[in-house]
Amino acid sequence: NAGDYVIEGNTIVAYVGKNTDLILPYGATSVAAGAFEKCAVADKILSVTVPNTYKKIQCGAFKGLTALEKLSVPFIGESRISNRFLAFAFGAKTYTIIRLRGIRTVNLYT
User: Fold this and answer.
1) What is the dihedral of CA 37, 102, 100, 68, to 10 degrees?
2) What pLDDT digit, counting tens, does each position of 31-58 carry?
3) What pTM value is reported for the model?
4) Environment class of residue 42 by beta-carbon count within 10 Å: exposed (0-12), middle (13-18) or buried (19+)?
């Protein structure tokens, strides 16, 4: 439901819904840093699907999603050409080994 997201321009800046299995709305093309960190259900969100129409996922966009088990994305990192490592979306600014607790599945599609 697009009404569950605060969208500025083409960027999701916050999630205000209560669902725990999310498909990001097609009206946006990027996800801001910390977009989910302060939402009421951050510790309950189980899955996030990012449509292939998205162009950018800022550093830390999915930070705070401690229950996340499944992430489906059209690219790994900030965009299809920069910061191409999974931890970037969770807040790591350099390529580093971090443990993404709970994530069981990462689907990368084109």
Assistant:
1) -30
2) 999 999 999 999 999 999 999 889 888 8
3) 0.77
4) middle
Separation CA 42–CA 55 (nearest Å): 23
Q: Which two three-digit tokens encode residue 97?
A: 């080994």
Under a CB-based contact definition with an 8 Å cutoff, are residues 90 and 103 in contact?
no
Per-position b or e across 3-41, b if 16+ CB within 10 A of its CB: eebebeeebbbbbebeeeebebeeebbbbbebbbbebeb
Question: Would you say 91 and 61 are in contact if contact means Cβ atoms under 8 Å apart?
Answer: no
Three-class secondary structure of residue 48 per DSSP: strand
